[in-house]
């Protein structure tokens, strides 16, 4: 009798965004266990979510929350990007740097 192997586990940052939510849907349909970070959890209605989706409320600048989300994962799809609430004065330091270095 063969032991059933656990599905591969991956993390998708920014899981609530347009592209990332489609990526989460695709990964679930292919049998992955998915950890998704997002600011507003709303992905539990996807097929397979109840069994294979773990949501983590996290921001790309919150290292502790991101560490919890990627724990136990074999891969990470870093799709999140900060979304400033106000007008940006310095887009490079306010958006680009956190988006690129947010998970490093």
UniProtKB/TrEMBL annotation:
SUPFAM superfamilies the record matches: NAD(P)-binding Rossmann-fold domains
Domain NAD-dependent epimerase/dehydratase, first and last residues per copy: 10-84
GO molecular function per UniProt: oxidoreductase activity, acting on the CH-OH group of donors, NAD or NADP as acceptor
UniProt keyword annotations, A-Z: Oxidoreductase
Keyword Oxidoreductase: yes
PANTHER family from the UniProt entry: NAD DEPENDENT EPIMERASE/DEHYDRATASE, NAD-DEPENDENT EPIMERASE_DEHYDRATASE DOMAIN-CONTAINING PROTEIN
Name of the protein this chain belongs to: NAD-dependent epimerase/dehydratase domain-containing protein
Species this chain originates from: Aegilops tauschii subsp. strangulata (Goatgrass)
